[in-house]
Amino acid sequence: MNETYAFIEAEKTTHGVAFLCRLLKVARSSFYAWLAEAKPRAARRAADQALVHEITVIHVGSRQTYGVPRVHAELRRLGRAVNRKRVARLMREHGIQGATRRKRRSLTRADKKARPAPDLIGREFHAEMPGTKLVGDITALPTGEGWLYLACWLDLATREVVGYSMADHHRADLVIDALDMAHGRGGLQPGCVIHSDRGSEYTSTRFQDRIRELELRQSCGRTGSCFDNAAAESFWALLKEEIGTRVWPDRATARADVFEFIETFYNRRRLRRHKVFGYLTPTETRQRHTLAA
């Protein structure tokens, strides 16, 4: 019907509105009502186009990973009071989509002779204060030179990556180096729980000795149960989807990309919904805890 009214508007100076309405079998009152809405309609289109531009900038800035919730949250942070349904509609109409996660291969190799620590987390992946609960795991990134192994420790109060290490092996040194970084920059409290799976790297004597030296407490989930370390598993899925690369040409390039992803994007720019503070980056969440303390 809009096309019919647009045709009448275009031809009315030549043939007259009454004649065109009779010819096209539409009521003149309906045409004039449509005409009265023309300016507001054009204003809405212009506003939608401007909002789509803002959405596109945010989406590109997120490495094309943000879906509707985070795009909407970022708009609100920028002072744009827009309806979430409107954001969803415009993203759908323009084919703007968030990233979807993919499965990863498990590196867990349990040492049958080792005596793992008890599970002190119990699938409660939340902490009231930073530096009290960390979760860690190892993943492998494919490169043209072979695998690059990455170990990380996440603070459950902020989901900030406070420690990480990369190497061409996944021996105990890899997770110890990441833990030392977390201890140096994460403000770990005495007795902080350090949770992982039961991989041989985490049940090794060297790692357990380092835990005691730093006055921390070790915690291990069950073998073969990804749900016992779900927060770490979720981070790996996020990293592998949002980093944007499937195979790197060499380990040096992969290292640089991982460093940039963690330090520049994930910790400082990527929004995550906190159950109390709302949408904040991991670094902002830590700062908010510090101010509230």
Quick tags:
7 strands, Nucleotidyltransferase, domain 5, 293 residues, Transpos_IS3, elongated, two-stranded antiparallel sheet
Explain the overall architecture:
The protein has 293 residues and is of the alpha/beta class. It has 2 domains: 1-94, no CATH class; 133-291, 2-Layer Sandwich (Nucleotidyltransferase, domain 5). The protein has helices at 2-15, 17-24, 28-36, 38-61, 68-77, 84-93, 172-185, 200-203, 205-213, 230-242, 251-266, 282-292; strands at 133-143, 146-155, 161-167, 193-196, 217-220, 272-274, 278-280. The strands form 2 sheets. It has a 5-stranded mixed sheet with strand order 3-2-1-4-5, with helices on both faces. A two-stranded antiparallel sheet has the order 6-7. A hairpin with a 2-residue loop joins strand 1 and strand 2 (146-155). Helix 4 (38-61) packs across helix 5 (68-77). It is elongated, with a radius of gyration of 27 Å. It starts with a helix and ends with a helix.
SSE diagram, text form:
Elements: H1 2-15, H2 17-24, H3 28-36, H4 38-61, H5 68-77, H6 84-93, E1 133-143, E2 146-155, E3 161-167, H7 172-185, E4 193-196, H8 200-203, H9 205-213, E5 217-220, H10 230-242, H11 251-266, E6 272-274, E7 278-280, H12 282-292
Parallel strand pairs: 1-4, 4-5
Antiparallel strand pairs: 1-2, 2-3, 6-7
Helix pairs in contact: 1-2, 4-5, 5-6
